[in-house]
């Protein structure tokens, strides 16, 4: 069976879950084609190693040789841009029509494929996966009407959480065409290892892009409050990742008087990140809805931390409560609720023994619902059914 993936720029460090899903299909005997909106330089892994070597050999820019025109076309007025981009998209139709099914990651890529379907140029069924930005931002701007063609001509819309499923249905997607399919993690590569901080410094960590929706501002404000209310508590906070808010966050840590207990390490290789996680006790990610509407799906970083035995602290945001139950598999606070977040962090600092039970339950939760191998089996089954129905038709 041949699966055509339609994605944005490829490959992307922030979208390794896309590569993981492609690799899962390759392992199950599927053939994978990739059509993307620009081939990146990709400097965060060896392009010659699998699965990237195979995937990049089967990757084509939507516009082929005309991709060099993308900056100029991007400056056109919206109506002219739509006409020009659709015309250039046609150059990839033959490649996509050789596939049994199309998988589009993110709603805007699904809509792009659906436009070709509407014009009767694309024949395979389209399965679109919605992740977060593609739901929250258009919803904030002017609703999800931009997906009307996709709702009509797409075969299935998969959302990474149930919250998005409900939003799409409310926006007009046929309920029969919307289902939840979680992103998952490779549990075989993440051993569980509980580490108590009794009598030691509590090591807190965040690994994320330093952008608004990650909520790192509120983690810092909560720790500033904690330093004032419980100055005897011994903790350190390590932040791995880079992004537009880094200077602002560093200044905030200094303003709160906690700069000496907070380290900004910037982006690190994956192997280094894994070592930092092994040295840490609790993972902090108090996500929020950004001003432009951007939201999380269910962050993979939280799943990985839970699998590894860290105590997680997050927020009642988007699909996160589908992963974390407060005081059962982790700790939650409302978005931007600094007081509750500080209370949760103080409880963790003062009750390591109770957190051990929570960490064990967190690992069980991830094993039961976010195991990449089981999810890849399910996904392969979904795609196979679409291929079979196409053959019957």
Automatic annotation (TrEMBL):
UniProt keywords, alphabetically: Plasmid, Transferase
Protein name: Colanic acid biosynthesis glycosyltransferase WcaL
Gene3D superfamilies in the cross-refs: Glycogen Phosphorylase B
GO MF: glycosyltransferase activity
Organism for this UniProt entry: Sinorhizobium americanum
Protein origin, superkingdom: Bacteria
Organism ancestry: Bacteria, Pseudomonadati, Pseudomonadota, Alphaproteobacteria, Hyphomicrobiales
């Amino acid at each position: 069976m041949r699966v055509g993936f339609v994605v944005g720029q490829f490959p992307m460090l922030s979208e390794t879950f896309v590569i993981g899903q492609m690799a899962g299909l390759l392992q199950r005997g599927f053939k994978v084609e990739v059509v993307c909106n620009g081939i990146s330089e990709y400097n965060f892994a060896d392009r010659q190693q699998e699965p990237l070597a195979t995937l990049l050999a089967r990757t084509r820019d939507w516009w082929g040789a005309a991709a060099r025109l993308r900056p100029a076309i991007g400056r056109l007025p919206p109506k002219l841009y739509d006409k020009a981009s659709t015309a250039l998209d046609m150059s990839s139709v033959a490649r996509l029509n050789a596939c049994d099914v199309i998988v589009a990651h993110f709603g805007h890529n699904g809509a792009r494929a659906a436009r070709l379907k509407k014009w009767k140029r694309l024949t395979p069924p389209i399965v679109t996966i919605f992740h977060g930005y593609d739901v929250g931002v258009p919803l904030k701007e002017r609703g999800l009407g931009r997906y009307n063609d996709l709702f009509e001509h797409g075969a299935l819309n998969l959302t990474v959480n149930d919250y998005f499923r409900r939003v799409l249905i409310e926006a007009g997607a046929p309920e029969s065409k919307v289902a939840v399919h979680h992103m998952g993690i490779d549990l075989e590569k993440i051993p569980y290892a509980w580490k108590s901080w009794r009598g030691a410094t509590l090591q807190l960590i965040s690994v994320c892009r330093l952008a608004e929706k990650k909520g790192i501002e509120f983690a810092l404000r909560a720790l500033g409050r904690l330093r004032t209310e419980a100055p005897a508590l011994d903790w350190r906070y390590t932040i791995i990742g880079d992004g537009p808010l880094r200077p602002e966050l560093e200044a905030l840590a200094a303003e709160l008087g906690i700069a000496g207990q907070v380290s900004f390490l910037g982006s690190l290789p994956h192997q280094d990140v894994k070592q930092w996680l092994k040295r840490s006790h609790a993972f902090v990610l108090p996500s929020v809805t950004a001003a432009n509407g951007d939201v999380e799906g269910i962050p993979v970083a939280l799943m990985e931390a839970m699998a590894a035995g860290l105590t997680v602290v997050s927020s009642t945001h988007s699909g996160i409560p589908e992963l974390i139950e407060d005081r059962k598999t982790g700790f939650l606070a409302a978005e931007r609720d600094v007081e509750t977040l500080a209370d949760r962090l103080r409880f963790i600092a003062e009750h390591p023994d109770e957190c051990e039970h929570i960490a064990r339950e967190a690992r069980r939760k991830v094993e039961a619902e976010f195991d990449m191998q089981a999810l890849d089996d399910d996904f392969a089954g979904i795609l196979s059914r679409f291929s079979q129905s196409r053959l019957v038709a």
